[in-house]
Amino acid sequence: MNFRKLGASDIEVSDISLGSWLTYSGGVAGEQARACVDAAFDAGINFIDTANVYGRGASETLLGGALAGRERSSYVLATKVFFPMSSSDRGLSGAQIHKQLDASLGRLQTDYVDLYQCHRYDEQTPLEETMAALTEVVRSGKARHIGFSEWPAAKIEESLAMPGVERWVSSQPQYSMLWRAPEAEVIPLCEREGISQIVWSPLAQGVLTGKYQPGEPPPTDSRAASESMSGFIGSLIEPRVLEAVQRLVPIARDAGLTMVQLALAWVLREPNVASAIVGASRPEQVHANASASGVVLGADLLSAIDAALGDVVVR
User: pTM for this one?
Assistant: First the structure.
């Protein structure tokens, strides 16, 4: 397993990390999820990402139990705040940041998180209030560092210009061969400011594994076939997208790679990406994801990928 520095922090994270968005918030049984956490440690993964809203605390609770008894310094733990936890609890006000972090720490059975992230930008709260509260939780020792997810570039710049507040070490955008929007503004800005990307959905919710065939129903054990996990996959399984992805299959095969290795190595080719966050519902998927660490794609291979995907790429 290879490791990369998380922004300007002293934290090193495995370049493949374990996510818990749909899988560990109720998508798979608890025993299965705990087996995946064990497999992650076996594979050398040290970075685990979650959020309070995943299953309204269910993911954090499961991870808290799965991590109990492990040496706290042996893993890097990240969670998030913003989305509604009740009819009245949401957003990035100072009160919410403090309340939700305390609740997250309780569920995670830990005194601190290594990374506390703003899950989205909060238009209803002054940015100064949010940054002041984040600074307080870092200086209190409840979070080592702060990050954001899917913030507009203008708001990132505004926050960086504020004096006396903690600086971001990470950005968590959606990023994959199919979704390259962060390349326009966010990645160049973060690169200049010493902020790393920890990217979500690098396998495009499993579409880039090649398991979805155009014109055929999804495999019965796949995310697209799951009532609890299929809510966000619609545009990714359109026929034209699946046809383009199938053109990648011989490219991966000729390079001696699996489709998973090809897709994860593609996001990791970007120096500003510190880690690719990947979910897994079975231990063998964890090991398959981990096998992408250290894979390097040459220029000809990158050109062949671009040619195969053509205009289905979102930039």
Answer: 0.92
